[in-house]
Predict the 3D structure of the following.
Amino acid sequence: MNYETVIGLEVHLQLKTKSKAFCGCSTEFGQEPNTQVCPVCLGFPGSLPVFNQTALDYAIKVALALNCKIQEYTKFDRKNYFYPDLPKNYQISQYDLPLSLAGYLDIELEERQKRIGITRVHMEEDAGKLIHQENFSLVDFNRTGIPLLEIVSEPDISSPEEAHEYLTTLKSVIQYLDVSDCDMEKGSLRCDANISLRPVGAKTLGVKTELKNMNSFKGVKDALAYEIQRQAGLLDSKKTLIQETRLWDAKAAQTLPMRTKEGAKDYRYFPEPDLAPFIIKEDKIAEIKKTIPELPKEKIKRFVKDFGLSEYDAKVLVALKETAQFSEECLKEYRDSNKKPVANWIIGPLAALASNNACEITDLKISAASLVELIELVEKKQVISNLTGKIVLEEMLKTGKGAQKIIEEKNLAQISDSGSLNVIIAEIIKENPKSVADYKTGKANALMFLVGQVMRKSSGKANPKAVQDLLKEKLESV
Ligand SMILES: [Zn+2]
């Protein structure tokens, strides 16, 4: 049987405000357990929450960037459930009047774009964290009350690959807004997935499962791929699927049942009596709109148009805001209409260097001006070869010196003047009569062999292009 897959994603995003959503406690990550707590976030009787205005501004910013309609009238609700990491026994969330509705995010697939609907972006607070030991569990309430956004997509996603692309695009947009660390390892970005299958062409949705416990985008993709196989197997053998929550076990590469899924009615939602409903005015929305920077999608278009880059190169350069800014500086600084070498150097050797140092490109202490100096020495002036260029780049990182200086100090400049090269070429021709004869009878690789010999004799410093040209010229006259 052929099935089509229906996926919806729920992303939880921690906002990087200095203090928590409803009290003044710090949100800093990695501090001693239970040192960032107070009566409000511990849910002591008689304490009252006060809403963090920065959290609201950040939330509106994200909702606008995701093309959502901000609701004028909004309120908080209590979502009631018991769990040891939830000291109040309820979470302050939003139920029937969320901050925003009906947005979308466009994702790039192979050769086409797809619009994924965003059902809603609403505000809530994070719970604490359980740390499980062998025979007991500990609870850390430092995370309790950190502002969260829940970003719920429509079930418009049709494959694990699309889910991965949606998450990557979403993360990139949010990083541009500078409102969250988006670090899945630290838990500041988390994702749950709803997935169901239905026979191709069917109108009604199949029974869905909710997947949790994925700790990376790859984990989300793998868990979804596993779940498609599992559900298809059950449907093929006419067994019943039950609606449930399943946990992804990355080590065993499978999903396991966790519990049957609660419905909204189980949470006994009711309006949060300690926080008054509020109105978001048009001028506030307009003011926040002004703070939204050029987002990746627009930047890609502009890089393609202004710098003549391919969509692919532009997309890679633009994915991170800081790298995009650095790349733009380099592209402007490089004095040639063909900007492709700049993209190649950033995506290739520079990215490799960053990866080897386990950091981002912009953490390497190499300025745009000094990178461009190096690229020009290789690509335009051909003072050094591409290979030597990579060595110089590493040297730049180690010593902080400029490319030109390193080339001079280490005597790395390649030999391009025909006088010096012709001396070596003459010797090589004399030493290799057989290859010369081979070349004369039309064997093309004889030329490459001779070029190699010249390169060797020059200790790799001859300019290979110049050698080839001069050698051809010389061989014609032999
Ligand atoms: Zn607190």
User: Anything to note?
Assistant: The first helix runs from residue 53 to 65. The two ends are 72 Å apart (CA to CA). Residues 296-410 form one domain. The mean pLDDT is 88.
